[in-house]
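Input (structure):
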């Protein structure tokens, strides 16, 4: 198990928030529907990525 500093954790949280913001505000809005720690992947440089879109839905703005 990896121990992260508060700064690293905050950086990961901000990356997740930016990813969700992108999904929710892009022209093809996507609602993930299952955000939890198991659905967040970390890259080689500890960059956070939103993953698993199994129950996600496209949202139309009407």
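Output (sequence):
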């Amino acid at each position: 198990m990896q121990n992260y500093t508060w700064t690293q954790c905050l950086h990961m949280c901000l990356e997740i928030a930016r990813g969700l913001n992108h999904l929710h505000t892009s022209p093809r809005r996507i609602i993930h529907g299952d955000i939890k720690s198991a659905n967040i992947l970390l890259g080689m440089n500890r960059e956070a990525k939103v993953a698993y879109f199994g129950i996600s839905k496209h949202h139309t703005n009407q």
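Notes: The mean pLDDT is 84. The chain is about 30% helix and 20% strand.
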